[in-house]
Structure to design on (203 residues):
C-alpha cells in the first residue's frame, strides 16, 4: 500500500494535469454561466483538512446563492438553484479542484475532504481517513455518495486507506463515471447535500 503511494502521486500529476488543461475551455464556459446565474464570486473557497490533517483552501465552482434572510434563502436547500444542482449532480463543480491534484493537496482517488470542524469529532479509527491525500472521488462515493450514513462513509474511507492500489483506484474511477452518469446519491435524506456530522459513538 505505502509502496503504491509514489506511483499514485505520479499518476495524479500526469492524469490530473492533463485533465486540468483539457478541461480549461469547459471551466471558462462554466465560470461565465456561474457568474450569470449565481453572481460573484464564481469560485467557492473553503478551508479543508488534507493528508495528516493539514489545512488547504479548497476551490470549486459555486453552486449556491448567498444567504438572504429577507428572501427566505437560508438553508442549503433554499440556496441551491436548479443550475447549481446540475453542476453538483454532474460533478462539473469539481473541475477547479483538479489543480489541487496537480499541486499535491489532493489525489484523484481518496477520502473526500470534509469540514475542518469535523477533525475533533472523529473517532481514532475514523481519523485514519487522513492518512492519505483526500480525493476527488473515493470508495465512499461509489458506495452511495451522500445517501449513506456518516459511519458507513468513514468505514469505506478507512477501507480504502488499508487497501489502496492501482487496481482499486481504476475500479473507483470507472464506477465514479457510472455514478455521475446515473446521478446516484447526490443528496442525503431530506437535505440538499449531507447532514452535518456531529460525532459518532462508534470507535
Amino acid at each position: 500500500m505505502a509502496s503504491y503511494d509514489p506511483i499514485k502521486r505520479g499518476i495524479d500529476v500526469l492524469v490530473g494535469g492533463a485533465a486540468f488543461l483539457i478541461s480549461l475551455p469547459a471551466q471558462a464556459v462554466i465560470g461565465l454561466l456561474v457568474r450569470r446565474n449565481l453572481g460573484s464570486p464564481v469560485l467557492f473557497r473553503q478551508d479543508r483538512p488534507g493528508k495528516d490533517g493539514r489545512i488547504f483552501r479548497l476551490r470549486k465552482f459555486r453552486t449556491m446563492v448567498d444567504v438572504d434572510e429577507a428572501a427566505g434563502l437560508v438553508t442549503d436547500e433554499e440556496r441551491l438553484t436548479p443550475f447549481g444542482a446540475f453542476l453538483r449532480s454532474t460533478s462539473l463543480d469539481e473541475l477547479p479542484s483538479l489543480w489541487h491534484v496537480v499541486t499535491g493537496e489532493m489525489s484523484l482517488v481518496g477520502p473526500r475532504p470534509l469540514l475542518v470542524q469535523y477533525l475533533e469529532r472523529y473517532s481514532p479509527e475514523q481519523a485514519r481517513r487522513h492518512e492519505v491525500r483526500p480525493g476527488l472521488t473515493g470508495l465512499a462515493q461509489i458506495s452511495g455518495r451522500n445517501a449513506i450514513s456518516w459511519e458507513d462513509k468513514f468505514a469505506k474511507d478507512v477501507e480504502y486507506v488499508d487497501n489502496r492500489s492501482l487496481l482499486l483506484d481504476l475500479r473507483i474511477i470507472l464506477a465514479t463515471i457510472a455514478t455521475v452518469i446515473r446521478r446516484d446519491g447526490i443528496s442525503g435524506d431530506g437535505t440538499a447535500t449531507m447532514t452535518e456530522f456531529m460525532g459518532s459513538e462508534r470507535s
Q: What stands out?
A: The two ends are 24 Å apart (CA to CA). The first helix runs from residue 5 to 38. The chain has a mean pLDDT of 90.
